[in-house]
Amino acid sequence: MSTEWLKYYLKQGYSLIPVADNKQPVISHKYGFLHGSHDATQDYERLKHFTNFGLVCNAGVTCIDIDLYKYVGEIPDRHARLLQTLQSYNVPAAVTPRNGLHLFISKIDNLKLNLLYTDIRNTNQYIVVSNGQNGYEWRTPLSHISRLPVIDIAVFAPYTNDCCTGRGNEFDRQQAVIPPVEPVTLTQETFEQVIHYLRRQPPAISGQDGHRTTMRVVSDLRVGFNLAEDVVKWLMMNIYNPTCQPEWSESEIDHKIADATCRVMPGYLWKQLGDARNMSYGSKLYRAVQYCNRIDDVYRIITHCRIGFMLTEADTITYLKIRFPGMLMDNILLEAIRTPNNPRNQEVGYLLT
What we know:
353 residues; alpha+beta; 3 domains; globular
């Protein structure tokens, strides 16, 4: 990394940590980097020995991280509206090597956005920044930390809960409730698949964003494999936890399992493992989720799910509740799911060809 980039970030008032090519924090006893983002510093003499850096979102900084590359075709309307709003504030923005987007604003505590593939980086979390060679590019230059755009949290209100309209009806914004989905019952074969998957996951290490690492594993088990909570707890305590440094307590594991949520169809990881249980329908579910995630109109989604992908009423309802948390399932909507509208008289399964 050119020292000019390092000097630039420090001059702008930001604290940094060195990161490796895989974006994980560098552990260096020699230069005092042992605890990841907790060792964030503005000491040029300590940082100049490294080439890649993570900008730590401590005092004064919040980063909105949007994985645009996960969408097929155009991004959803709500994301586009958010980006247009932020652009009006001249928000510093960087493009990632995989065409993601990092947006930097003045710190907003407890900011949460209910948008798919969107994360908020706040206190003691870091974001990889450009060094001129690592594929990260500034679309809008990074300003001094004291001059980051100050945006009222009310501006983000339309994106903290999903609100969908259709046929003149607006659905209530209620607390997001994940609908009950019958957990998978493991056979010896599927149990071995899960164990194999779990043993390939990286361990959580203190000072290296261990909470995020563990939450991803818990979410994979609870949501990706759609396993019951007691099964997830046994797997975490007996298979994964012994690899962590230090190990999590039982109460911490319980808390992480309770926090595991999903915005995609439960059980999606079975497809990646080639689950033999009715793969044809599993493939329909997977393709329907990928296709409908980029559509905001509820009734178009119903038509695509029920007619285009031939999904059941139950799975269509499950997807809608996960995609639009808090949406009121009124009689009009349930009737639309039972008898979906097909204005173009398209053949059943038209999206499966």
